[in-house]
Design brief:
Helix content: over 70%
Order of helices and strands: HHH
Radius of gyration: 18 Å
Number of strands: 0
Length: about 70
C-alpha cells in the first residue's frame, strides 16, 4: 500500500513541478534572457484536451459495464 501511495504521490509531484516550471517559463512577467531561453515542457492545451477525452472514455466504459451487469 505504501508503494502504491508513493507512486501516486510521485506522479502528482512530477506533474506539479512541471506545471510550475512551465507557468514560470511562459509567464508574461518573465522578461529578458529568461523568457527567451526557457521553453515549456508540456503543451497544456493538448494535455487538457487529452484528459477530457480520457474522462469521457472512462465514463462511457463505466456506463457500458453498468448496462451489462443489469
Amino acid at each position: 500500500m505504501r508503494t502504491f501511495f508513493g507512486m501516486i504521490l510521485g506522479c502528482l509531484l512530477t506533474i506539479g513541478v512541471v506545471y510550475v516550471h512551465d507557468s514560470m517559463a511562459t509567464s508574461t512577467v518573465a522578461g529578458g534572457t529568461t523568457a527567451s531561453t526557457s521553453r515549456a515542457i508540456v503543451n497544456w492545451d493538448v494535455a487538457r484536451s487529452e484528459w477530457v477525452e480520457v474522462k469521457e472514455n472512462v465514463r462511457l466504459t463505466w456506463l457500458k459495464l453498468k448496462a451489462n451487469v443489469s
